[in-house]
Amino acid sequence: MKMFSKISIKKHIFLLGLLCIVSLKAICQIAISHPVERMIFQRNNSNQAQINIAGTYYSAIDRIDARVVAQQGGTTTAWTTIQTNPNNGYFYGTLTAIGGWYSLEVRAYKNNALIDTKTIQKVGVGEVFAIAGQSNAQGGAGVSTPATDDRVNSINYSDNLTDYNRLPIGFSKMVGDSGKIGPFHYVPWAWGKLGDLLASKLGVPILFYGAAHGGTSSENWSKSAQGLPYSGESWKRQDLGAPYRALENSVAYYGSLTGLRGILWHQGESDPETFLVPYYENVKNVINKTRENAEHNSLAWIIARVSRNPNPHDGPILGQNTLISGFNNDPNLAPVPNVFAGPNTDNIYGSENRTDGIHFDTYAGQIEFANAWNASLDNSFFTTSTPMMASPLLAISLTCNSANPSAPISLNVPAGYSKYAWSNRQNTVQESVGFNYSGCCQYTNIPPAGYENLNWRTLDSVATINVSAARIAANVRKASKKALFSPVIDLTSFALATNPSFTTSATQIRPNENLTLTGANCNGSYIWSTGASVNPLTFAPTATAAYTVQCKTLHCISSASSPQSVIVSSCFPSSLSLNGSVNTAESAYESKQSIQSNQIIQLSGKIDYNAKTKVELLPGFEAKSGAVFKAFILGCD
């Protein structure tokens, strides 16, 4: 049985949905890169989830606060500090929220002063499902029942090639026949209606991943999950890992980002001659592989009883029931743990539901299909299944590589993973095109504007890379094939720190006398060896010392300049020529040679001169009445 055909070639202008336009960075101090709009995090059985929050800072900050504001269901949280003193070019923290549909607000501070606020308009804590099976799960051209509830979402992109590099990160409201359920479904089919029912019943947003593949048998699924060849039509593209690859991407790639409640399995029409045992073993293999890929041994599977093609068949039904409940207490046919009973859709038939006797290709049939699934996903299921939660984001370390100006950014992620991938750009339109096939025909689509559409093939696949300024992200694959993602870090304005220099106002000063250090040639802020960060720096040293300065940009700090020593002593080795006014009590001027002065000692002034050879008071020298002035011919050591 082949999946339905549909040719739908659409032209889009692909736009990167940046929260801060490059030209506006002067007034935009932070940007949120995670979560993206309409992202839904799987809740736990206590109705909570940790929302991963990350982004870029464009100026110095020392605190990030966040909160969610309830839009439909849920509870607005208090402002919570999620990170202090962020570094490495990005901020990252988590916020706990209960099930609901929210806006997310993030604030940045410096020294308790508010620097910037950014908002993600829609983000959810709710239920996330992956759909697998064959054409009655994937759907086909013609009739689809759209979601009416804004909280029902999917990835509006489909790619039969299941190309790792083409998988976008973005979410949309599930719309009618023009919408998709990525990574594989090219129509919404009946899942929009199910989403409406679940959102209404549970009071939380719903996210679907589409991984079903029309015309596939349980053997096709089992062997492709194990990487084994199978007999089948060429359009099934087993050379690309089909049908299993899309489900792998759903649980190991996307599921890592959002978490996952479980797999909705609707398959059996292509197994009319398959008996109980092979069907049981085939699907059990697929179940085990998804749990391995997800690193979640209790990942729930909800299995529908389905075989009608157009007549019902006992073999797949017995196999499905055995997966759920076991068979005659046979230990070799024991129930698979954490497998739950889905609907018996064989009981939905008649031309008003299936015009061809097989597919739910009418609105009435899809409504019955959705109602049946909704009845199966009952309170018992949600309280006894164990969801997989979203994974933490991958940490990136940033160092500045001044020895390599063409690639001055050195980035590192932890070692020990099976595969590494880095991105420094978005895919081009050509690289973004998703394909799907339905026997005779092919159609194409590209991700909607605003989706992260990262290219993972430009840079080296290693743990540490050196790159030039760009928007950067990393992901890694474990041996299980589970992926972990870093935040996207905007380093397009990255600048190495220049090597600064400085001058001193004097090489020797008396105690309590001010010294001024003046820096030059810095493209950022000056960091003095005293710890001060103003330029010029004026202060009164208490002792002889050597001073240096460094230049600090947002991400880098230069080497220290050559040191310059300043002596703090009243005893000067050379002759002194003094001028100006003495207004307060000052430290003495002493010279190992001579002193000449035309200073004016004011009424409140007090000063002593001491020289080895002579003290010469030049025309213009004056000691006002009441001033204290002494001169000595003694010299100093």
What do you see in this structure?
There is one protein chain. The chain is of the alpha/beta class and 637 residues long. The protein has nine helices and 41 strands. The strands form eleven sheets. Strands 2, 4, 5, 7, 8, 9, 10, 11, 12, 13 and 14 form an eleven-stranded mixed β-sheet that branches. Strands 17, 21, 22 and 23 form a four-stranded antiparallel β-sheet that branches. A four-stranded parallel β-sheet has the order 32-35-38-41, with no helix packed on it. A hairpin with a 2-residue loop joins strand 7 and strand 8.
Radius of gyration, in angstroms, nearest whole number: 36 Å
Query: Outline, from the CA principal axes?
Result: elongated
Secondary structure tally: strands: 41
Percentage of residues assigned to helices: 10-25%
Helix-and-strand structural type = alpha/beta
Strand content: 25-35%
User: How many distinct helices?
Assistant: 9
- Please give the largest β-sheet: 11 strands, mixed
Uncertain stretches: 1-19, 21-26
Mean pLDDT: 93
Distance between the termini: 105 Å
Secondary-structure map with pairings?
Elements lengths: L29 E5 L4 E4 L5 E10 L5 E10 L7 E5 L5 E9 L1 E11 L2 E21 L1 H4 L13 E3 L17 E2 L17 H12 L3 E5 L7 H8 L18 H15 L3 E5 L9 H19 L5 E6 L8 H12 L13 E6 L18 H14 L2 H6 L12 E4 L8 E4 L6 E5 L5 H4 L1 E5 L2 E5 L18 E4 L3 E7 L5 E3 L3 E2 L10 E4 L3 E2 L5 E6 L4 E4 L8 E3 L5 E3 L1 E4 L11 E5 L2 E2 L3 E3 L2 E2 L6 E3 L2 E4 L2 E2 L4 E6 L2 E4 L4 E2 L4 E6 L4
Parallel strand pairs: 2-8, 8-11, 8-12, 9-11, 12-13, 13-14, 25-31, 32-35, 33-36, 34-37, 35-38, 36-39, 37-40, 38-41
Antiparallel strand pairs: 1-3, 3-6, 4-5, 4-7, 7-8, 9-10, 15-16, 16-20, 17-21, 18-19, 21-22, 21-23, 24-26, 26-28, 27-30, 29-31
Helix pairs in contact: 2-7, 3-5, 4-5, 5-6
